[in-house]
Design goal:
The protein has 12 helices and 14 strands. By secondary structure, the protein is of the alpha+beta class. The chain has 2 domains: about 220 residues, no CATH class; about 120 residues, no CATH class. The strands form 3 sheets. It has an 8-stranded mixed sheet, sandwiched between helices. Strand 13 and strand 14 form a beta hairpin. The radius of gyration is 22 Å and the shape is globular.
């Protein structure tokens, strides 16, 4: 059972607290981002009021499938849609800087600036962990990305713990859910008749004017039971013990080629992944004012030209590109940043046009090493 820890306090309140919470965040100068219903999909969008929330909407997901499948009295009934905090903290397109020629001299007109402060409402625990994973890649000491640093430093995270697992979720096996453990400003668990709110030190300022009662032992037990049920609902998992070394040992598994025969190399999996950070830059010329803007855009390791350099492409084959995507999540990332790059959100399964299941890929690769590698126990990486 999760109890108050250190300076964290636990309260209960009603669902009517959500509109007031949004108002409080806006009053503090935050642009609230939450789940909304748009063209039959639950998307993360900027909210102007609580009536924009996809309250009561239930989604149904499967490999390569997504639809709205009913309603619920819960405010946060839907699980993850295609969006994550990455789209706001590491934008898909951003003007990094702009230059202009004036009287024969080149001057720097602007660099990235933003006055937005985001408050993410309804973010799921796996997505909060994804932000923490992105911190490792975008904020290494001395090499901080200025765009991400600015947008990330002013952000607030109101997490909603998962009492329902989506069909493609496997966060429990990745240790990223269904409950958030740290890094949030508020954490909400929605029970059938109330909200249980986990309030770290300093989080009280977001709850001004909201009627709160100390969470009872029964409240905490109900929360624990709901979270346990969500864990048990997950039909997918990845065995992470010694996974990085096992993946290295299976680099030449025939399963890579078999999966790649289905893969379209469309990049959907990398676009919806909450931790993929690959990007490319190009210059955009504006003849109207003789300016040049340096623009950064999302890119994908599944793109054939992504690693093309000096007249050679080391990953020309689709098999090699798909293997790079999976290996980075479950092996290379661990060596680079000390954490897995996958948080078990299941988006890559849902939004793959041909329904490739990442968890099955990992299982197939490990079960079918290349001939002569069956007895490989350990791979040492310099």
């Amino acid at each position: 059972m999760r109890k108050a820890n250190g300076n964290r306090m636990r309260y209960s309140t009603g669902r009517e607290a959500v509109p007031r919470l949004i108002e409080n965040l806006q009053r503090l100068g935050y642009q609230v981002v939450g789940p909304t219903l748009s063209d039959g999909v639950v998307r993360l969008r900027e909210l102007s009021a609580a009536d924009g929330l996809a309250s009561g909407v239930v989604d149904v997901q499967g490999p390569g499938t997504y639809r709205i499948g009913g309603s619920s009295p819960s405010v946060f009934a839907a699980v993850n849609g295609p969006d994550s905090a990455k789209g706001f903290l590491h934008p898909g397109e951003v003007e990094v800087m702009k230059f202009r020629e004036r009287e024969g001299e080149i001057e720097l007109v602007s660099t990235f600036r933003s006055d937005k402060k985001y408050a993410f409402l309804g973010l799921r625990p796996c997505d909060l962990r994804a932000v923490q994973v992105m911190d490792r890649t975008m904020l290494p000491p001395g090499f901080e990305d200025p765009v991400y640093r600015k947008l990330r430093s002013d952000s607030v995270f109101v997490v909603v713990n998962c009492v329902r697992a989506g069909a493609n979720c496997f966060c429990a096996s990745m240790g990223t859910g269904p409950a958030a453990e740290s890094g949030y400003d508020l954490a909400i668990t929605e029970l059938p008749d109330k909200l249980v709110v986990d309030v770290p030190n300093g989080g009280e300022k977001y709850l001004v004017g909201i009627s709160l009662e100390p969470a009872t032992r029964e409240d905490l037990q109900s929360e624990a039971d709901a979270l346990r049920l969500a864990r048990e609902q997950m039909g997918r998992r990845v065995e992470t013990e010694n996974l990085s070394k096992q993946m290295f040992a299976a680099m030449d598994s025939p399963a890579w080629g078999e999966v790649a025969e289905r893969c379209l190399a469309c990049g959907n999996c990398t676009l919806v992944c909450p931790t993929c950070f690959c990007n490319s830059t190009h210059d955009r010329i504006d003849m109207r004012d003789d300016s040049v803007s340096r623009v950064r855009e999302w890119d994908s390791c599944l793109s054939k030209n992504f690693v093309y350099a000096a007249g050679w492409n080391p990953r020309y084959q689709r098999r090699d590109r798909y293997r790079q995507f999976v290996m980075h999540k479950f092996s290379y990332w661990l060596d680079q940043f000390g954490t897995y790059g996958c948080v078990g959100c299941g988006r890559c399964i849902t939004w793959c046009p041909v329904g490739i299941d990442l968890t099955r890929t990992v299982s197939s690769v490990l079960q079918r090493p290349a001939p002569g590698q069956e007895k490989v126990q350990e791979v040492r990486v310099a």
